[in-house]
Amino acid sequence: MNATASAGDGTMIRLSGLSKTYPDGTVAVQELDLDVGRGELVCLVGPSGCGKSTTLKMINRLVEPSTGLIEIEGRDVTHEDPVKLRRGIGYVIQQVGLFPHQRVITNVMTVPLLYGESKATARERARELLTLVGLEPDLYGDRYPHQLSGGQRQRVGVARALAADPPVLLMDEPFGAVDPVVRARLQEEFRRLQRELEKTVVFVTHDIDEAVLLGDRVAVFAEGGRLLQYDTPARLLAHPVNDEVATFVGAEHGLRRLSVTRIDQDHVEPVDGVKAADLATTVAVGATLEEALALMLRDDRAMVGVTDGPRFVGVLTPAGVHRALRESLKG
Ligand SMILES: Nc1ncnc2c1ncn2[C@@H]1O[C@H](COP(=O)(O)OP(=O)(O)OP(=O)(O)O)[C@@H](O)[C@H]1O
Fold first, then answer.
1. What pLDDT is stored for residue 309 in this prediction?
2. Cα 228 to Cα 60: distance, rounded to the nearest angstrom
3. Among the four residues 17, 46, 194, 287, which has the most C-beta atoms within 10 Å?
């Protein structure tokens, strides 16, 4: 195995011919090939029982593969000590599994302490992480998990998974147990956090909306652990490879494309003599079509100004949105 080849090409995780058949004969994952780039956020999505969690748990060896190879940074980890392996991999699950009799700060400090950090350093690091996930340490650090909301507990789970600063983060339906409003906020915050930290993340969800919102790439699985398509959200929605994927991405995929298609200069109509200040409503190049439409609806206007930094580049109209969507189909 040429270790440097796969480490050098920007691949962080490479699964090759990975399969899992459980002892009772259930085929959970079949001959899976999947590469995850360094700093990439990949979502595994598909119906219940299609092998998403099994795939995730093979990466940190909570489940032993039946056949196939797992490489992390070009290193074959299939035969590595699983305990050592898991130190470099954060793991966040739906039932976050915080220690109920320990305060929030202590929960987050556990891992750094385990690695031999001094108490003062571990505490400082835990405070930083709590702040990073949006929990004011002075306010929440001394609480017990039962004194937090479900969403706050999930944030502590994310902070704890980040505590060892692992290059790889595995997340199994981490926001599945919270209500839709909190969930949307956690998703938004997590997206921001991910951009900031540049971790390599494999994220399991059964929710296609969550997958296309969060994923740089999305892997769609079918029953029996078959990978149907592995693509960017835009390509997945515009070009499902077969009817199975098309059915899974659903009849609303046109609407979803609004949320993954970003405005670029080509979508914009130039307007002579107009400056950004002349238009009440503007969006920046790179915002999504959905954001632009939402602003048009909010302000009851049939156009928004588009800016690129301080520069005004033109206006986007509903017709422009339509054109952009049609172009995204060609992509
Ligand atoms: N320990 C086990 N022994 C036997 N079969 C198992 C075991 N764990 C999972 N399975 C089976 O393997 C298949 C894949 O399960 P897995 O949990 O990976 O799916 P999933 O896509 O994550 O599902 P969900 O979205 O419902 O969590 C299912 O048919 C499941 O019943």
1. 86
2. 23
3. 46
**197, 232, 252 - which closes a domain:** 252
pLDDT digits (tens, 9 = 90+) for 285-312: 989 998 999 998 888 888 889 988 888 8
Residues 247 and 265 occupy one common structural domain: no
Same domain, yes or no, for 191 and 279?
Answer: no
Q: Is 39 helix (H, G, I), strand (E, B) or coil?
A: coil
- Spatial separation of the C-alpha atoms in residues 8 and 178, rounded to whole Å: 39
State the CATH number of the domain containing residue 210.
Answer: 3.40.50.300
Do 289 and 209 belong to one domain? no
- Examine the predicted complex and report whether its ipTM is higher than 0.90: yes
Say how many Å lie between the CA of residue 224 and the centre of ligand 1.
10
CATH number at residue 281: 3.90.1280.20
Q: Does residue 278 sit in helix, strand or coil?
A: helix
State which residues form the domain around 197: 3-252
Is there an atom of ligand 1 within 6 Å of 300 CB? no
Strand partners, 288: 262
Do residues 198 and 282 share a domain?
A: no
Q: Tens digits of per-residue pLDDT, 118-133?
A: 999 999 989 988 998 8
Of the chain, the end-to-end C-alpha distance in Å amounts to 35
From 215, 235, 252, the end of a domain falls on 252
2 in contact with ligand 1, CB cutoff 6 A: no
Q: SS3 string of 244-272? A: HHHHHHCCCHHHHHHHHCECCHHHCECCC
DSSP result, 96-116: ----TTS-HHHHHHHHHHHTT
Q: Distance, CA 53 to ligand 1 centroid (Å)?
A: 7
Instruction: List alpha helices for 48-98, DSSP H.
Output: 52-59, 82-87
Phi first, then psi: give them for residue 79, nearest 5 degrees: -115, 15
Q: Are 97 and 53 within one domain?
A: yes
Total domains in the fold of the chain: 2
Binding site membership of 28 for ligand 1 (Cβ less than 6 Å): yes
